[in-house]
Write a structure and sequence with these properties.
YefM-like fold; three-stranded mixed sheet; 3 strands
Length: 93
């Protein structure tokens, strides 16, 4: 594993990326202390918990949120008028 200072990493970033693409890891230090590890990207594992969260989010998007009668539907004209009012309300005359 190659070790470089943060300053050196900044100056040699393209070369370091090439090394990482070839499978090498690069330890970056600041004032002699390790602060980062530059390595190939590895997608996070798809754990059962993560898959369940994804499935739940997809289900919610498909089904929609249960707003009930709390919200009413607006017409296109109402939305357009409300937008115009919001744009002109902040202007001084």
């Amino acid at each position: 594993m190659k070790t470089v200072s943060a300053r050196q990493a900044n100056h040699e970033f393209s070369e370091l990326l090439s090394r990482v693409e070839r499978g090498e890891e690069v330890l970056i230090t600041k004032r002699g202390k390790p602060i980062a590890l530059l390595s190939r990207y590895r997608p996070p594992p798809l754990t059962p918990e993560r898959q369940a969260a994804i499935d739940h989010a997809i289900e919610l998007m498909t089904r929609g949120l249960p707003w009930g009668a709390a919200l009413r539907a607006f017409t296109r004209d109402e939305m357009s008028h409300a937008g115009e009012h919001a744009l002109t309300a902040g202007k001084k005359r």
